[in-house]
Write a structure and sequence with these properties.
single chain, 499 residues, alpha/beta, Aldehyde Dehydrogenase, Chain A, domain 1, 2 domains, seven-stranded mixed beta sheet, 14 helices, 19 strands, 39% helix, binds NADP nicotinamide-adenine-dinucleotide phosphate, oxidoreductase activity, acting on the aldehyde or oxo group of donors, NAD or NADP as acceptor, Aldehyde_DH_Superfamily, Aldehyde dehydrogenase
Length: 499
């Protein structure tokens, strides 16, 4: 498929033949691909924000039904991209076909779910309410007030490398903002620029078919950070949807905090997703559970924000550790999404290896130098509490088994945890009741509490909450998955009296 290699601003592919360029990279072969992309320029960022500002004035007025039609048409156009989309993304990410087909289905489903809520005039979200007036109320009359919601304005979206569809150019934040009536400017992730271009082509076709104002969507290709900071600094931008690392979110927040007008950054960040195995599992259950957790860890080669990174296991559960070691030792190596992620993985696991309070107990095969091997470490619950390094996310296929000697040690370890996207607790119904206090304490650490199930896999539905206390996200009250994500891009407006 022919690629422009350009940014897309307000209905036009930019002609920027003079500027800086970058190539897309193929992690599977560890080589650059021939496709070349032009870095968006400062002038193009300004053009994107100005056209989004203009488009907002008309886009916010179109009916919910028309917006639903627009989202459904985008979903249709993504389907039309067919296998070319999957093959392009396989080259850019080395993610397997089956995984990408599943993620594409989820992304299309997400757009259709928002369209359905719009068709129902947002009533499933139960947003609005009315207080009847009362002229006779004493000592003063009560006014008639009605709460409604309006779009927040232009939204800048940053995607992550590990979800090239569901958390990228056409991911949840873009779908939610467009559903809310907000124009979107995507700063495309440089790890999959051709995928970004194909998704943008689908949006472009839908814009033209549905008669949507051009400036409603722009996509800026780029691998240089000044571009991102210029975008979030622009006074036209009223909210930022971000999925990625804590380091990048912190850098963007610093720029946002220097703005005259503060704006929200909805950052969906990393997490170690603690797995808590309660006492009372027999040898067979321990082996099954350990194998399930290794399978969950190696899914996507540890590159899920919900990957299980820390496993709390009773000290006496030797069958758990034995089974986990066996499963890790036969796990295959694979590439990581970007060379940057691979370097950080190596650096962080080297730090663990040199740490006196933690031991490497199993390592999978390493078939190529540019692959990452699965690694399993163990430490005591006391050491886990004392050493912050052991509590931080390592993005990639690495997990730590934290052995606890008794309930008190587990309670302390849970208290030491930072905010998390998810946590899972494994135990019989009786054990779960017995440990109500630990479970209550855990519920104040996470956005999703899971019982007897692994954390990988996030259902797109109304009751889903994907977010959590900092540092797993920057807004504990907001979800990035499910139709309630629309709320982050709407703001309340109270209408008093009548006109
Ligand atoms: P990343 O490196 O933080 O990249 C995300 C975006 O931020 C990219 O567009 C990147 O552009 C930009 N960026 C990076 N550093 C920046 C800086 N200093 N200033 C401005 N922009 C900057 O994240 P990633 O490697 O793609 O994704 C992996 C991380 O995302 C993991 O921590 C994972 O847990 C998290 N994640 C979270 C969720 C969730 O829903 N909570 C979902 C998926 C992934 P450049 O590449 O040009 O730097």
């Amino acid at each position: 498929m022919k690629l422009y290699g350009q940014s897309y601003i307000a209905g036009n592919w930019q002609n920027n033949q003079q500027g800086d360029t970058f190539n897309s990279f193929c992690p599977g072969t560890n080589e650059y691909l021939p496709a070349m992309f032009f870095e968006a320029t400062e002038a193009q960022v300004r053009r994107a924000t100005a056209s989004a500002d203009r488009a907002f004035k008309s886009y916010r007025r179109i009916s919910n039904r028309q917006r639903a039609q627009f989202l459904s048409t985008i979903a249709d156009e993504v389907t039309v991209l067919g296998d070319a989309l999957i093959e392009t993304t396989m080259l850019e990410t080395n993610l397997p076909r089956q995984r990408l087909e599943g993620e594409r289905a989820r992304t299309i489903g997400q757009l259709r779910a928002f369209a359905e809520v719009l068709e129902q005039e947002l009533t499933p979200l139960n947003l609005n309410c009315v207080d009847e007036g009362d002229e006779t109320r004493l000592p003063i009359a009560k006014p008639h007030t009605a709460l409604t919601h309006i779009p927040i304005g232009v939204v800048a979206v940053f995607g992550a490398s590990n979800f090239p569809y569901a958390f990228s150019t056409l991911g949840g934040d873009t779908a939610a903002a467009l559903a809310a009536g907000c124009p979107v400017i995507v700063k495309a992730h440089p790890a999959h620029p051709a995928t970004n271009e194909l998704m943008t082509k689908a949006i472009d076709k839908a814009i033209k078919q549905c008669g949507i104002p051009d400036g409603v969507f722009s996509m800026l290709q780029g691998s240089q950070h000044p571009l991102s900071h210029q975008l979030v600094k622009d006074p036209v931008v009223k909210a930022v949807g971000f999925t990625g690392s804590l380091a990048a979110a912190t850098a963007l927040l610093k720029t946002i905090n220097d703005r005259k007008e503060p704006i929200p950054l909805y950052g969906e960040l990393g997490s170690v997703n603690p797995q808590i195995v309660l006492t009372g599992q027999d040898a067979h259950q321990q082996s099954i559970l350990a194998t399930q957790l290794v399978n969950s860890l190696v899914m996507g080669h540890g590159q899920f924000c919900t990957s299980p990174g820390i496993w709390f296991v009773p000290e006496e559960d030797i069958d758990f550790e034995r089974a986990a070691i066996n499963a890790v030792e036969v796990a295959h190596s694979d590439t990581l999404l970007t060379t940057g992620i691979l370097q950080t993985y190596k650096k962080r696991t080297d730090m663990l290896r040199q740490h006196p309070n933690i031991a490497l107990v199993a390592q999978g095969t390493l078939s190529k130098q540019y692959h990452a091997a699965v690694q399993l470490y163990t430490c005591s619950a006391d050491d886990f509490v004392q050493h912050k390094l052991l509590q931080e996310e390592i993005f990639g296929p690495c997990a730590i088994v934290v052995k606890y000697r008794d309930e008190e040690a587990l309670v302390h370890a849970v208290e030491a945890l930072d905010g998390q996207l998810t946590a899972s607790v494994y135990g019989s119904a009786d054990k779960l009741h017995e440990q109500a206090e630990i479970i209550e304490s855990l519920s104040y650490k996470v956005g999703r509490l899971i019982f007897n199930q692994a954390p990988t896999g996030v259902e797109v539905c109304m009751s889903m909450n994907h977010g959590g206390p900092f540092p797993s996200s920057t807004d504990v009250k907001s979800t990035s998955v499910g139709t309630r994500a629309i709320l982050r891009f709407l703001r309340p407006l109270c209408i008093q009296g009548g006109i």
